[in-house]
Amino acid sequence: MTRRAVLVAAAAAALVLSSSAAYAQCGGASWYGPGFNGKRAASGEIFNENAMTAAHRSLPFGTKVQVVDQNTGKAIEVTINDRGPFHGKRIIDLSKAAATALGFRNRGTTSVCLEAM
């Protein structure tokens, strides 16, 4: 195979992967609820700390995201309805219910990987 053919094949494979690949990100997660419950989220919805929702800096509101705790392998699904987190290098803020479901609420933070559904 010529070098040009290899480059064309690689470019075609990259195009297929990029068009079908979902958004994925790994990093820190925290949770929020007290003080925000019953107030408007950035999406305009009323924030409910007992719902399976989350805040992300850039994913569109309504995006369903699978969140996997890197320490335990436990996975949940949340809906993005707010903006944040605005602390450190965290990539997502989960509702109290979501943090409880993942099992890190008492610790406050954990390491996760996200994948948009």
TrEMBL record:
Keywords: Cell wall biogenesis/degradation, Lyase, Signal. Residues 1-24 form the signal peptide. Pfam families: DPBB_1 (PF03330). Its EC number is 4.2.2.-. InterPro entries: RlpA (IPR034718), RlpA-like_DPBB (IPR009009), RlpA-like_sf (IPR036908), RplA (IPR012997). One of its GO terms (biological process) is peptidoglycan metabolic process. GO terms for molecular function: lytic endotransglycosylase activity. Residues 25-113 form the RlpA-like protein double-psi beta-barrel domain. The keyword Signal applies. It is an enzyme of class 4 (lyase). CDD domains: DPBB_RlpA-like. It comes from the Bacteria. Belongs to the RlpA family. PANTHER family: ENDOLYTIC PEPTIDOGLYCAN TRANSGLYCOSYLASE RLPA, ENDOLYTIC PEPTIDOGLYCAN TRANSGLYCOSYLASE RLPA-RELATED. Lytic transglycosylase with a strong preference for naked glycan strands that lack stem peptides. This is Endolytic peptidoglycan transglycosylase RlpA. The gene is rlpA.
